[in-house]
Amino acid sequence: MRSYGESLSHAPTFPATAIPLAQLLAEPDLLTTQLRAAADNFGVHDLRPAASAWSNRYLAALLPPLVAAATLLHHRFPAGEMAVSLAPHGEVAGFHIRELGESLPGTNAVQRYDTLLRGHLTPFFAELNRQSGLAQKIMWGNTVRWLTFLFDAMQSFGEPHAGAANSDRAQLLDHAQWRGEANPLHMRRKRASPKPGEQAAADGLVTLHSQCCLYHLLPGQDYCGACPLDPVRMQ
């Protein structure tokens, strides 16, 4: 998992080419340029699937180091005060912080993840929705996939890390409310009969993604293996 940490760097000043999150949200043309570059790179005119794929790669760079710090070390990075470096074709090259944040021993997941979820992802997803028309529930669904992947990976780390991952997973994903508001990470788990050759759980069913990520709308792509909209599975 070490390579995931390379997407986050710390220095007293942001690199000259990095764009602060606040600027990315305040100047819509910056995000529009990235989305159109991503759409051109994917070879699609519809910004929705391009935005979904782009946001998924954004999350791939953002979440692993912040989740590892929050769950395994009880440390909160300043997720709302970051800058992002973008590659020429629109991809996310990495994130930058000027301060190391704070250690929060003995705190719950709500306290450790609030800055990431409400200070970074909530306004970012809202702006991405305005720019591309991509439903925010799809972006939150992509977030749930990454959190699930990371928490599952932590199971191999042994105790107390596996227990910490299970506790944070439950606090983040299993409750309909988040500090008095609707929790966008709380999604109904979809279960279905397996397709031919697919291994099912003990109850004879397989777990599907809560949301379709629109990956099948990209040229040359198809429905992913756990897509709830796969026509073959729906039949």
TrEMBL record:
Domain Aerobactin siderophore biosynthesis IucA/IucC-like C-terminal as annotated: residue spans: 52-189
UniProt-recorded Gene Ontology molecular function terms: 2 iron, 2 sulfur cluster binding; catalytic activity
Source organism, top-level taxon: Bacteria
Pfam families: FhuF (PF06276), FhuF_C (PF11575)
Chain ranges of the Ferric siderophore reductase C-terminal domain: 212-229
Protein name listed in UniProt: Ferric iron reductase protein FhuF
Organism: Duganella sacchari
Lineage start: Bacteria, Pseudomonadati, Pseudomonadota, Betaproteobacteria, Burkholderiales
